[in-house]
Amino acid sequence: MADNDVQLIQRILDGDDEAFTAIMQKYQERIHAFALQKVGDHHAAEEITQDTFILVHEKLYQLKDPKRFEDWVNVIAKNLCMKWVRTNLRQ
Fold it and tell me: Residue 77, exposed/middle/buried by CB under 10 A (0-12, 13-18, 19+)?
């Protein structure tokens, strides 16, 4: 599984948009389920999922070990969830 991610990541870094779509589809449901569990709001979980993949696209070149992609994307989602909770608890 990680080897497939490594190949997809290399293709993404080489400019292959289809590879980005493939990796996004692979992790999208997991990220959404995680976000929904953390924030308890379906709409917010959808936004967090979308924002997660926007950040992945923008910062993928910073990923030092492509074999750790799953951990990396989970940390991004977790941080966005924590930010959402902090922001919405203040209101």
Answer: buried
